[in-house]
Amino acid sequence: MTADTNVLVDALRGKNDAILFLGSSESVFSISVVSMTELYAGLRDSRELQQLQKFLTSFVIHPIDETIATAAGKYLNQYSKSHNLGIADALIAATASSFSEQLVTLNTKHFPMLPDVLRPY
């Protein structure tokens, strides 16, 4: 399963539902490097930096390649206006699709291109 940034943010902020969900799965969660970028962009201090660096060791981090970039561009072409899809979400969706993983997100409406998006809580 690929975790979207919003689920990761909830876990980092100590939201119990997110922590329980991420901890209850028998599989290892993955994230896109885009989520990693978004998490680093939101840091406020060195304590949060240390917390984030430790947190990220729990995940498989998927890079972006040409296949993912192409798919994301196609998603943007098709859904940017109708679903307010941005580049970050398009890349995250394309990453999940490229690795044949289910996307876990709180914003299911941003991912009409994926057939089995899961809202975890």
Descriptive overview:
By secondary structure, the protein is mainly alpha-helical. The protein has a single domain, classed as 5'-nuclease (Rossmann fold, 3-Layer(aba) Sandwich). It has helices spanning 5-12, 16-24, 33-41, 46-56, 66-83, 87-98, and strands spanning 2-3, 30-32, 60-62, 103-104. The strands form two sheets. A two-stranded parallel sheet has the order 1-4. A two-stranded parallel sheet has the order 2-3. The chain is globular. 29% of the residues are buried.
CATH superfamily: 5'-nuclease
- Uncertain residue ranges: none
The global form is globular
For the secondary structure, the number of strands is 4
* Major sheet strand order: 1-4
How would a textbook summarize the main sheet? 2 strands, parallel
Rg measurement, Å: 14 Å
Q: How far from one another are the termini?
A: 15 Å
How large a portion of the residues is in β-strands, by DSSP E?
Answer: 5-15%
CATH architecture level-2 label? 3-Layer(aba) Sandwich
> Given the helix and strand composition, which structural class is it?
mainly alpha
H-E string: EHHEHHEHHE
Q: Which whole number gives the mean pLDDT?
A: 95
Helix fraction bin: 55-70%
Notable characteristics:
121 residues, mainly alpha, Rossmann fold, two-stranded parallel sheet, 6 helices, 4 strands, 8% strand, globular
Summarize the structure.
By secondary structure, this protein is mainly α. 55% of the residues lie in helices and 8% in strands. The radius of gyration is 14 Å and the shape is globular.
